[in-house]
# Entry
Amino acid sequence: MTTKQGEKTISSAATGTGEEREQLFKLLAEAVREHMGANVDEEAVRRIAGEEIARRYAPQVLELRLPDGTAKTVEGAHAQLAELLGMIEEGHRNLMLVGPAGSGKTTLAKTTAHAMNLPFGFLSLSAGVTETHLLGRVLPQADGSWQYQKSLFVKIYEEGGVFLLDEIDAADANVMVAINAALANGVLANPISGTVHPRHKDTYIIAAANTWGRGADAQYAGRNALDASTLDRFVLSTLHVKYDTLLERMLAQASLPDAKAAELLEWLEEIRKAIDTNRLRRVASTRLLVNATAALKAGRSLADVKERYFIDWSKDERAKAGV
# Structure
């Protein structure tokens, strides 16, 4: 059995039925017996193999202790959810997620809210977003008066929840001034409403970025440098989010036959290596895997997926990627 075949067999058994696991344990015991002789403790083999399968392949299952003292189990979570919740347990209420496009930052923030039984909101700080999107606005009423309309950010700030400030490294400087004040002081002095909004003890603000806040790079050319005071709000509470390959494996195997899932995952790994090795300004994200899985499930071939993915790549880029 080759390494890849063994990997596939173990992976399938880890996510399959109890009978499939039993067959795997027997195969492993026979392999150990073949190399070590007849005196093999099969129960020890089963225990060690089971622990290794659970560590490497089983769905991420977290037993959480929530702030109100209750327990909760979260299955199928991003591999770094426990790390993010650990920062919250340390007392951090401002957190930052930095990672490539499609690495699961939004999902990670949303799952955090779900795990803690808190409402979730988000705002993408792309071009055109102003202070009113963040702080609310004053609107005319039917009787001719003007009334302040609270934004979702202000609502969660006052009442508790998880709010994601997405694409924070693309935000307008004036918006960042308002954000800085809300993050640092425990109160939000709102110039639009003319009131001071106190921050709820269970309000967690998560910022997401593709860069480390030092300005644009070759991959993310349209990003802004964040002020030092902004970055200081997230000292020791910044998480580098990576692609969750275990989650990707589960997503592919849940929708595709083993052979197709393995072929797709292998191709994704090769593309990522080519992008990293050659410093290409390209992204092969979890989103690519999800969309490719949907295409394959609908009857398209992997060749069709590749043709669509490489449609705007230059000849030089294609050559470096081995296309």
